[in-house]
Amino acid sequence: MKKVLTIAGSDSTGGAGLQADLKTFEEYGVFGFSSITSIVTMDPTQGWSHEVTELPADLLEKQLVSVFTGEALAGLKTGMMGNEQNIQVASHFIEKYQVENVVVDPVIACKGTAQILQPKSVSGLQEYLLPQAWVATPNLVEAGILSGLGDLNSLADMKEAARQIHKLGARNVVVKGGQRLVGDFAIDVLYDGHTFHVLETKMVQTANNHGAGCTFAAAITAGLAKGYATIKAVELAKAFVLKAIEQGVRINPYVGHVWHGAYNQAQNRMEEQ
Ligand code: PXL
């Protein structure tokens, strides 16, 4: 059994964060561990604003000690880190245990909300986690910030950002165009330091896509852990997320989530015979 870890924030509504990661790991048939860095809550009395409560780094460290007591992990994903101390702790464990298949989802900006910006994470990501990443998966806004290029508006901009983030040490960079890039297709660019692969899927017009980014990175992690080549792991993750978006679920008046089980039709499991 392949074992994989997510170091991420908690989204109690179950769409993004470590909840998305664990659900995705299960769909891929790998055993999921999780260590919590922060807790995201949403307050409907404030127009459904997000609040991030950071957890202290010593608590993250205790969780990681628990996780790393067992045999080697086959993959590791980082998501929302909360603060720079948590980034340093995570980075330390990755180095100490020489973890392979590290996927860094550099969560700085969540889709559709400026409230969840994590400015404190930017330099830590650049200095510690991106150099350890086998794959980094910034969205358009994050890629603009991490590369220092600012607003990205075209495929050419995405390629240049990928090139800059590769220079920071990430071995493979997927810049996710998603809904932010104008056009009929969801375009991602994968750069491995030599070649740009432009990955296109149809754009699904839906509001029920909360959690898509986390799910994508978790799917890549699980695919790599299972031994898929990087390009194959990224392509499969894209197909997995497309299905999850197409079958998104309305959660409340404010938000709808991707359905992590869509690719395998998990809703049909365990039916009474
Ligand atoms: O999608 C970014 C993200 C990551 N992690 C957690 C989140 C969110 C967005 O809401 O809640 C825990």
Automatic annotation (TrEMBL):
Which keywords accompany this UniProt record?
ATP-binding, Kinase, Magnesium, Metal-binding, Nucleotide-binding, Transferase
The protein's annotated catalytic reaction(s) are: pyridoxal + ATP = pyridoxal 5'-phosphate + ADP + H(+)
Chain ranges of the Pyridoxamine kinase/Phosphomethylpyrimidine kinase domain: 11-258
A Pfam family in this protein?
Answer: Phos_pyr_kin
Give the highest taxon in the source lineage: Bacteria
EC class of the enzyme, as a word: transferase
Concerning InterPro entries, the annotation shows: HMP/HMP-P_kinase_dom, PM/HMP-P_kinase-1, Ribokinase-like
Would I find Mitochondrion among this entry's keywords? no
GO molecular function (one): hydroxymethylpyrimidine kinase activity
The Swiss-Prot or TrEMBL record describes its family as follows:
Belongs to the ThiD family.
Name-wise, this protein is: pyridoxal kinase
